[in-house]
Design a protein that fits this description.
- The chain has about 350 residues and is of the alpha/beta class.
- It is built from 14 helices and 13 strands.
- A hairpin with a 4-residue loop joins strand 12 and strand 13.
- Helix 3 crosses helix 10.
- The longest helix has 15 residues.
- The chain is globular, with a radius of gyration of 21 Å.
- The model has no long low-confidence stretch (mean pLDDT about 95).
Length: about 350
């Protein structure tokens, strides 16, 4: 039985064009900055984001950590959301490896951090306080229904950052999903950021890798932190080749994932026990609950998997479903039909 995997867009497989590019890639030693394919990917990524330079990183988690280590010293503090990936899902690396103190504030449901809460969290100079160095934002905001942050919001945060001489880092793992959803160039979302990380291995379908970008001096510092963390790669142009194909061919098609997610959300809304608000889901990520008179969330998860559909059940009985290139429109319709057979209509 073929499996329809909705657990994450990290489940994407490389395209045939990526596989061919990987096999034919010209490579060199990237620790010596001599891999031409990695250099090409970095230049392309920097150009797309409107930054001076970029750096190829093995993973998004390492990309965020390298960025924080480059911005901050031991004992410095960063402001970030309490539902951010950096705070929840990156193993506390900023504290364990960087000695950086997180100051989490509540994310609103649209993914933003309230400006007044950011300002209140900024430390004044005092012998007792860790100095605030950095504001971290996430775009799209995964655990807030995959919500995109707008250019207007980024401008407001940047004004606050300049007022207090702070930097901004954007965990943009899915920042191209944000730009597609908002129908704007991605640079409208990155121009206010001092550094940006995005993933090649999610909706863009590359098998591995992420990018961090910023100014040239910052990237040179980041390059040394990457090496220290074990991220210095040798003939990794084979991996970078897939990233080039992803950036050249994979961005515009993300709209298909958004359409499939909205189709599924609207369909789920009509099923018995499903609690979901389609209007809050603007990209490829869905969150929903089940309040069914006869089925527990665990039983529904099991029934869906027996029928070939994999979902992610999180704490508190919350489900996540993520649409990606490996889930077609036809498969999305099939998921809805299976769920309807199990749950029935309202």
């Amino acid at each position: 039985m073929p499996i329809i995997d909705l657990r994450s867009d990290t489940m994407t497989q490389p395209t045939e064009a990526m596989r061919q590019a990987m096999a034919q890639a010209e490579v060199g030693d990237d620790v010596f900055n001599e891999d031409p394919t990695i250099n090409k990917l970095q230049d392309l990524a920097a150009e797309k984001l409107g930054k001076e330079a970029a750096l190829f990183i093995p993973s998004g988690t390492m990309g965020n950590l390298v960025s924080l280590l480059t911005h901050c010293g031991r004992g410095d503090e960063i402001i970030l959301g309490d539902r951010s990936h950096i705070f929840l899902n990156e193993v506390g690396g900023l504290s364990a490896l960087g000695g950086i103190h997180p100051h989490p504030i509540p994310n609103l449901d649209d993914g933003t951090l309230p400006l007044e809460a950011i300002e209140a969290a900024i430390r004044h100079r005092d012998l007792h306080y860790p100095p605030t160095r950095l504001i971290c934002l996430e775009n799209t905001q995964n655990y807030c229904n995959g919500s995109p942050l707008t250019p207007q919001y980024m401008d407001s945060v940047a004004e606050l950052a300049r007022k207090y001489e702070l930097r901004i880092h954007v965990d943009g793992a899915r920042v191209f999903n944000a730009s597609i959803a908002l129908k704007i160039d991605v640079q409208e979302l990155t121009r206010q950021a001092d550094s940006v990380m995005f993933c090649l291995s999610k909706g863009l379908s590359a098998p591995v890798g992420s990018i961090i970008a910023g100014n040239r001096i910052w990237i040179e510092k980041a390059r040394k932190w990457r090496k220290m963390l074990g991220g210095g790669m040798r003939q990794a142009g084979h991996l970078a080749a897939a990233g080039i194909v992803a950036l050249e061919t994979g961005i515009d098609r993300l709209i298909e994932d958004h359409k499939n997610a909205q189709f599924l959300a609207l369909g789920f809304q009509k099923l018995q026990g499903m609690v979901i608000e389609p209007e809050k889901h603007l990209t490829n990520i869905l969150f929903f609950k089940l309040a069914h008179p006869q089925l527990t969330p665990e039983a529904f998860l099991e029934q869906m998997e027996l029928n070939g559909v994999k979902l992610l059940l999180m704490e508190g009985g919350i489900f996540r479903a993520v649409l990606s290139r490996i889930v077609s429109q036809g498969q999305t319709q099939e998921v809805l039909q299976i769920a309807e057979r199990i749950l029935g209509r309202k």
